[in-house]
């Protein structure tokens, strides 16, 4: 979208200016914007002429932002974010006309909840879906940047950037093969798993620290049989009898077809999952329908 202010500065010039500051160079900005570097340079020069300010110092063929550049960005960022939302809403309308919707979510939910929701949507609406996965941080970035129309994640999320609908509350559980000795327990504690091999998420995740520290607090060094970096990578190892896993109840219910069992694990944590979208975005008919079916699918797990 290109419009003009009373000074002759265009929205496009400001968007390119913002991307140069974010990317740190004209070359990187050009790559992100999918235009040529000379085009970026030309727009920056025109912007400086229009505002009559030196926004960058030229050093060794590099643009070094001045303090005035950052001041200008702060003053126009709110307006640019509004333009971004409008452009993404228009893109969503085009997508709906084209019959497509993009959903970002942890891959583990593609085992049951998301396929059931999409099946329900497609009974009355022939939408095609693009599924994007990744960490919770990456999922939030995909929705914020418009690469995904909707997201599934857990709180906290930045309420200044997103709106959401509560989907499910989950608690820590211990996952194991059917008939395992732990099935006799109503609640499993660290003392109960001292002699068990663990299939555990990697150390950079908070859940890993909680699980491992619970054992080390009792003077036991855990037997880590397998470490994984994304939920759903654990289920095959648990099903094969390699070890047990400490996950949360919503994820455990995604594994129902594997015939595994799980019990509450204490001490544990509570997780609040949501379906979310950009704050201020008008949901299309397909988006609203998808949100409703996702909420129903998670409630049924």
TrEMBL record:
Say which domain of life the source belongs to: Bacteria
Mind telling me which PROSITE patterns this protein's record contains? Answer: HTH_LYSR
- Alphabetical keyword list: Activator, DNA-binding, Plasmid, Transcription, Transcription regulation
- Enumerate the GO terms in the molecular function aspect: DNA-binding transcription factor activity; sequence-specific DNA binding
Ranges for the HTH lysR-type domain?
9-66
Tell me the Pfam families matching this sequence: HTH_1 (PF00126), LysR_substrate (PF03466)
Per the record, the GO terms for biological process are: positive regulation of gene expression
Q: Which InterPro entries match?
A: LysR_HTH_N (IPR000847), LysR_subst-bd (IPR005119), WH-like_DNA-bd_sf (IPR036388), WH_DNA-bd_sf (IPR036390)
Family named by the database record: Belongs to the LysR transcriptional regulatory family.
Name of the protein: LysR family transcriptional regulator
The record lists the organism as Rhizobium phaseoli
Q: What is the lineage of its organism?
A: Bacteria, Pseudomonadati, Pseudomonadota, Alphaproteobacteria, Hyphomicrobiales
